[in-house]
Amino acid sequence: MAVYQIPVLSSLGKRELAADLPQEVNPHLLWEVVRWQLAKRRRGTASTKTRGEVAYSSRKIYPQKHTGRARHGDIGAPIFVGGGTVFGPKPRDYSYTLPKKVRRAGLAMAVADRAKEGKLLLVEDFAGVNGKTKEFLAWAKAAGLDGSESVLLVAESELVRRAARNLPWVVTLAPQGLNVYDILRTERLVMDLKAWETFQERLGGKE
Q1: Which residue segments constitute the domains of the chain, with CATH numbers given?
Q2: pTM to 2 decimal places
């Protein structure tokens, strides 16, 4: 573990908070966690019809013998155009289990990576933000966020999330929704202190 000095922004100015986070980032472990997340999100609704499910008669299309042609049964056989599919996809659940220890380590590494790059900002209060996009834009400009980088905003206040969610460069989450995939697909991570507290609890095994 390493001690990171993370900037904390409030209406009174900036200060720093010391936090213990992993020093080394394991790319393969992060890949494992992202793969697990995306597998859980797959709908798994792809479905094809077998020869018993296609809308054709099961009548034998012509006699077995004396036609000089190959032997065939019903026209819904897979060999015919429009017939059933052999071994096609059926609805399934793509999710699988991943140890909690690995998930916690991945989340800690993702946050540590943003802290190491200087892309992590903690916010004590979103002064003047009460649900309006223009209010959030004014706050973001004062905080040095101008939209040139994508931002993951993790905030407890629904008003703050509502004010930011219409901006194309902001992804908003509640504190409980902080995850590796969204951290890695955005360039900056902005969290309020409640989100930081929830993150610390998750690292302590209270999820």
Answers
A1: 2-43+95-203 (3.40.1370.10), 48-88 (no CATH)
A2: 0.85
